[in-house]
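ASSEMBLY PREDICTION REQUEST
Request ID: AP-0331
Submitted by: J.K., bench scientist
Number of chains: two
Total residues: 471
Priority: normal
Notes: Please return the full assembly, not individual chains.
Input sequences:
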Amino acid sequence: MSLVVRRYAPQAIVTIIILLTVMFFYFYVNPETSEAFSRADKALSDWVVVITSFALIVGGIDILRFHLVRMRKEGLRQAPFSAVTISLLVLMVLFALHGWYLSYADPAAGIAITTQPQFRWLYLNVYAPADAAVYSILVFYMASASYRAFRVRNPMALLLLVVALIVIFGNTTVGGLLWPGFLSLRDWVMTVPNTAAFRPITIGAGLGIIILGLRLLTWREVSWMGRRE
Amino acid sequence: MITWEVFGAWLSAAMVVWIYSFAYRDNALYKLAEHMFVGTAAGYSIALALDSLNRVVVAPAVRSPETFWAASWHYVIPVVLGVLMFAKYSRKYYWLARYAVAVNIAVGSGLALRTAPIANIVRQVTATILPLWGSDPVKVLNNWILVLVTLGGLTYFLFTIFPRRVEGARPSPAYWVYRSLYYIGIYGMMVGFGALFANTIMTRVGFLISIYLIYIQPEAWASIVAAVLAAVAIILGILRKR
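STATUS: Completed
Returned structure:
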């Protein structure tokens, strides 16, 4: 296929959609155009939901392929673990499909994809506790990070330490017991210096978004297209 | 009697212990829990994707086909684009997947370009235009801090061309202004990062406490089993090291 179909047409789609979504948002023509734009805008958002859903399915299949390859390459050392991943993935999908089927075959039962009993059991007893544990295990690593961050080597580190202690004591009941002023001091830190510190970062992020949009519009940003010809 | 509910409680307690055993050392039980987590997470995300597809396309098309084909027929286009995403597995037709990605990228960027100039720039700038003189000294001080730290942060991040200082000559006023704002920005950000760090610690500790609450339950056996599993995980870790 020619480069036009492989590269330029997708890039043209990006440019046209960005231009239309931004232009009709900022420039008011008449009520009819505005209403049509709102409808098209809503439809485009739904399109993204549909396409993202397919992308998630592709991602799941990628994990499946990855573990199948690992089983073949790494042999018995990895095979049992990869088999666990693959079987749980397949089981979750099968239960979800069963729930989907029941939602049409027996609507009175009130069972849907995410409320299928076995699916929920796996979600509540495997996924949810593991998710919370993985998230909270970082507290052990943060303890060592805190030790390194809170060593006072220069005035900046001292400031970081003092502010972190104020916020921690202000957030906990023991801080209020030690000195009631921690609460109001924490509020001041959060509303004045903290707001001011993150404002330039927010402005920088905004400029970054605009620059990325302009790069997409001018076809300079091509990393989203994946492999190069 | 061991019901599925009891078994589930045990399994969830075991998952937590297995994952926490990594804080000591990598071991087989941690690896098992990790792979179980990845499998269920991938399955869960696929299920959520199916649920979204069902809500947006399938259910309206099945339950009221006339309305769907009259008003929402265009949903066939993203479905076709979505199916094209599977072309990424083909060496010859991988480029077809770009059409779906193009729509997603464009809509995401379009939405971001609509909101970013107002929310990220205009509102932040207008919120920084504050009165620097007045009768309330506390408010005035707060306003000075807000303005100077914001300008300092911008100086540090965005205006990265530092005024040169010629050797032997006195630095220009621009140099001193720039240098002052630069350091105010750094110290201001240290305050922000300190607060962020503290909040992150608080969140993680909150999760840790909520996890420990799993073990405070009437079934004492679950706690004993969890302790045994933790011991097994540690022993496995030691054996693996040898």
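REVIEWER COMMENTS: The radius of gyration of chain B is 29 Å.
SIGN-OFF: pending second reviewer
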